[in-house]
User: Fold these one by one.
Assistant:
Number 1:
Amino acid sequence: MVRDTVEIFTGGFNMLKREEAFELVKKHVKTKNLVKHCLAVEVVMRALARRFSEDEELWGLAGLLHDLDYDYTKDTPESHGFKTVELLKDLDVPKEVLDAILAHCEKKEIETKIEKAIYAADPVTGFIVAAALITPEKSLSVIDTDFLMRRFKEKLFAKGANREQMKSCEELGLSLEEFFSLSLDAMRTISKEIGL
């Protein structure tokens, strides 16, 4: 009980460090594109945390680790999320992060701000990547929010990126346009790492 109280007042100084989390991603996530996806969701979550004056490290950790179990659960989607929680159970990962990981794949009711954020952030990164890849330059630098809004209306474009899930950003008080703008700006900061 004392430790929980200490973490509340200190911002969770015992929390798993970002570098340690990234080592876990490299160990468990074997697909290069999925590692890039985890990095993209992390950077969008950090931007959302800044926007709402939330804990950037905490939100970033949720984004980075959200698909940690994907290679283990791709054939058993009902286990997705639960396996990640199991992989992290002996590490200093706050319950908020574990709940966000479960919420992103609908294994837990979406209630808190971090859960709403990751639920919307997960598909938006894939949508933005798909938009960049249809340009001749294959680069985030040549697309803008208007381009994303037009693509959003095309039901066949990036149909794997759930439109309703992205629109759930409105539950955070963000319009879809604002959400696209924030997410695109965030992803541009790691364009080298994600190859776009």
Number 2:
Amino acid sequence: MPHWTALVSVLAVLFYFYTGLRVPRARRKYGIAAPAIAGHADFERVFRVQMNTLEWMPIFLPLLWLFAFYVTDRGAAALGLVWIAGRIVYMIGYSKAAASRGPGFAIQAIVCGILLIGALAGIVSALAHSA
């Protein structure tokens, strides 16, 4: 069982919940009533952090688990922690200014690229050895 990957998956979901909790607080702070998603740049950045995290979760989680299954559980978990750290860097940067979101975005995107390449290589290797 990939226990480390399971733990990191839960941590990623907890981080997503945290970004979601920030949105209603920002709505109150900046006076943006639902369903509006625009009206104050500071609110919009908080909202986009949550939405961008949501947009990346269906890319990240399957790749994380495929990497864990076909390559290594501990390696997947370590990469998953780096992905979460990248998302935190993204959140902090984007909360300050839209132009500051790049480093965190790059970290998490590179991690997903590594997970993709590793998972694909592992799958191809498994298929080649099963023939």
Number 3:
Amino acid sequence: MELILRNARLAGGDRVNIGVAGGRIVALAPTLAGGGESWDAGGRLVCAGLVETHIHLDKSRIIGRCPPVEGRRLNPVALTAPLKRGFTVEDIYERAEATLCECVKHGTTRMRSQVEIDPGIGLKGFEAIRALAAAYRWAVDLELCVFPQEGLTNYPGTEELIVAALRQGGVRALGGAPRYDTDPAGQIERIFALAREYDTEIDLHLDVGDSAERLDIEQVLALTERYRRGGRVAVGHMAKLSLLPPARLAAMARRLADAGIAVSVLPATDLYLMGRDQDHAVRRGVADANFLAEHGVACALSSNNILNPATPYGDGSLLRIANLQANVLQVSRPAALRELFLMLTEHSARVLNLADYGIAVGNPADLVVIDAETPEQAVAELRSPLAVWKAGRRTVTRRPAELHHPLVVAGEVQDRLA
């Protein structure tokens, strides 16, 4: 074996040694003998690499280019659109690389990045993120979801550019943002048609707004069932679900589960953008991922935007996102905190249809050691990853913080009265 990760504590509590060879897990046992590298996890939590299901690398780190916003109302798409015309492939790559590296340092080894395509930016974002995926294959599996942020039916030339990207290859998913189209239903219909034609996954930005009177998910449910796309459709945001009473939300959750539609909840962005029509008692606008999961929906928690007008903060830490979700939804039960951790790992892998994910013999040796004993502790206390391996190769090392107590000398505490 090339690597043995010793004294690993799995999410279920088992203590094992993990043997790695050829980039894959080859053994899981209480004791393992063999040569090669050995790393002692010391009983800390070890999981498969974290999974970022929904992030916009191409427009991260542009907040410094945006003018200050006056008042409470905010349209991040309108703020970003004029900047896109000045983007270059090199600029996009540099910003995206900086964000990707932060995500990797925080334990992410799989990722789906949304990539905007329209006549204003052309294929520059697509070219940059595709090149980034190739350059960082050693650290992360980065897949692309191309989509029309500023509209499809109302923005001539957009569909032709999206088709050009699909034909070039390297695109796993096709997305949409019907909220910004003059014909939301028409956009959704066209996205489903293109996804069938080019055999891609579907990943839509859906149902963000101040009222739940109209839900685009109804059409998505109907099309998913009509074209038998269950298990290949994901929706991001779904902030309007936070406005539904429990009985209606439960019914919707069951329909999503039955149809095979997964949900990526994006708390940092939705908490920042929702409720801006209110000047007091502001709604939170974050979908209850735990509630959805209890009704069988495959759910993930993800970053969405980092350092741009839609989310002017962020450090690439998915554990921070889970901790934020726990705060906003007032999650405290250990089992519910554990479920949030799974929404960064196993459940997120389900959202992206990753068949080879997890700590099991034969799977890629994508491993993260977290400075915690349990998943719930990792979320509640925001514990950091200490080491990351991608396909058995060490990609990240973080040293635990060390307290230099003045009364501690050579490991012994001095007499305080001396």
Number 4:
Amino acid sequence: MKDLFDPTLADDIKQRIMRLNAESERQWGNMTVAQTLAHCTSGMQMAMGVINPKRASFPANVIGPLIKPLVFGDDKPMRRNSPSSRELFSADPTQCDFEGERARLITTIDSFASKGAACCSYHPHPFFGTLKPHQWAILMYKHVDHHLRQFGV
């Protein structure tokens, strides 16, 4: 399973982030590239316990744990327009600086990857519920990869 605790995969993800530019065109969704970078940083902060979104409401809070084994059972990428917690979309497009957001995401990935399991949140994921550190690392890889594919890198 691909995960962001793997230094080689973390480096690959960071190289892909560096191939983005402020004019990178999205292939789906509606966030700008800078908003997407901020959203990915927020996701990483959730995995590290800096942001603790509330649990999804019914029926998502029941469906999430049921499909968790499918999501964490293989390296299949996340599907387009997958739902996400509202708290991870706080970036105002007029306040997003591409270079700043890119640097912040890379720094956050470095912190997550180097600290490993010790940095992972015990707060339940809004959709999947309780996650083990390795599951957080898998999900963070899949999440950032998903958004990089959204912008063609």
